[in-house]
C-alpha cells in the first residue's frame, strides 16, 4: 500500500513538472499570456515547479528503503523515469496535437518498461 502511495506522489509531482517544463509552450494560446516575456514565463514555470517539489521530496523520503519505504534508490529513480514518460506522453497527446507517436517511440517505451522489470528483479 505504501508503494502505491509513493507512486501517486510521483505522478502528482510529474504533472506539475511537465506543466512547468513544457506547459509554457502553450501559453501563447492563452490571451492573458500573449505579452508575457521570458522572465515572466520563467517565474510562472518556477512557481509550478515548486508544487512538483511538494510531492517529489516526500515521495523520495517516504519511498526510500533506508527511511522505511519499499524502494531502493535505483528503483525510485527508474519508477520516476517511467512515470515521467507516461505523464509527458499523455500531456503531449492532449495539448500538442501536431506531435505524433511513431513505432520507434513505442520501442523506446518498451525498453523502459524492460528496465523497470530488470531493476526490480531480485
UniProtKB/TrEMBL annotation:
<keyword id="KW-0472">Membrane</keyword>
<keyword id="KW-0812">Transmembrane</keyword>
<keyword id="KW-1133">Transmembrane helix</keyword>
<feature type="transmembrane region" description="Helical">
    <location>
        <begin position="76"/>
        <end position="96"/>
    </location>
</feature>
<dbReference type="InterPro" id="IPR007437">
    <property type="entry name" value="DUF486"/>
</dbReference>
<feature type="transmembrane region" description="Helical">
    <location>
        <begin position="5"/>
        <end position="24"/>
    </location>
</feature>
<feature type="transmembrane region" description="Helical">
    <location>
        <begin position="36"/>
        <end position="55"/>
    </location>
</feature>
<protein>
    <recommendedName>
        <fullName>DMT family protein</fullName>
    </recommendedName>
</protein>
<dbReference type="Pfam" id="PF04342">
    <property type="entry name" value="DMT_6"/>
</dbReference>
<feature type="transmembrane region" description="Helical">
    <location>
        <begin position="102"/>
        <end position="120"/>
    </location>
</feature>
Amino acid at each position: 500500500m505504501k508503494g502505491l502511495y509513493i507512486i501517486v506522489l510521483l505522478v502528482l509531482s510529474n504533472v506539475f513538472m511537465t506543466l512547468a517544463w513544457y506547459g509554457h509552450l502553450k501559453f501563447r494560446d492563452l490571451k492573458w499570456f500573449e505579452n508575457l516575456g521570458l522572465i515572466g514565463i520563467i517565474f510562472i514555470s518556477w512557481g509550478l515547479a515548486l508544487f512538483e517539489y511538494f510531492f517529489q521530496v516526500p515521495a523520495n523520503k517516504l519511498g526510500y528503503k533506508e527511511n522505511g519505504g519499499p524502494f531502493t534508490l535505483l528503483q525510485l529513480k527508474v519508477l520516476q523515469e517511467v512515470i515521467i514518460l507516461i505523464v509527458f506522453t499523455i500531456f503531449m497527446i492532449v495539448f500538442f496535437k501536431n506531435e505524433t507517436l511513431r513505432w520507434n517511440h513505442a520501442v523506446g517505451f518498451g525498453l523502459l518498461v524492460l528496465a523497470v522489470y530488470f531493476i526490480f528483479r531480485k
